[in-house]
Amino acid sequence: MKMKHVLLIDDNDMDNYISNHIISKNNLAEKISIKTSAMDALEYLNNLQANPKEFPNLIFLDIRMPAMDGFDFLEEFIKFPQAVNKQCDVVMLTSSSDQNDINRASQYPVVKKYLNKPLEISMLENL
Fold first, then answer.
1. Starting from the edge strand earliest in sequence, which strands make up the sheet with 89-94, in order?
2. pLDDT at residue 127 greater than cutoff 70
3. What is the pLDDT of residues 15-45, one digit of tens each?
4. b/e for 75-103, b at 16 or more Cβ within 10 A?
5. Contacts of 126 (CB under 8 A, 6+ apart)
6. How far apart are the first and last CA of the chain?
7. SS3 108
8. The predicted structure's pLDDT at residue 93
9. In DSSP terms, which residues pair with 29 in a beta bridge?
10. Residue 1: its pLDDT value, please?
């Protein structure tokens, strides 16, 4: 299924490159946006609220990032109007295999999956 818009949020350029390449190669999205910090991503999404058709359908979110981590991002993201964040699923894409992180991520209804980096073709088939 092709998405209209996918957002990658990760401070690691190599991980963003790999994810972008995998998504593009498999024609998963018409548009891919990349933000290297959770704060930049929130600002970007705040600006898109006025135009919900541009809002991402899927966000790949890293956990470990400086200044604001993935869980801090989620705390802010769930405050968005329901009409906006209801159309967007979040997939945790992280190097953390810590059970506490997995359990914590599962507490957020917007989080649909928890995947370990790097993104692979087989992971997309299960989304």
1. 29-35, 3-9, 58-61, 89-94, 111-116
2. yes
3. 999 999 999 999 989 999 999 999 999 999 9
4. eebeebeeebbeebbbbbbbebeeeebee
5. 113
6. 9
7. coil
8. 97
9. 3
10. 64
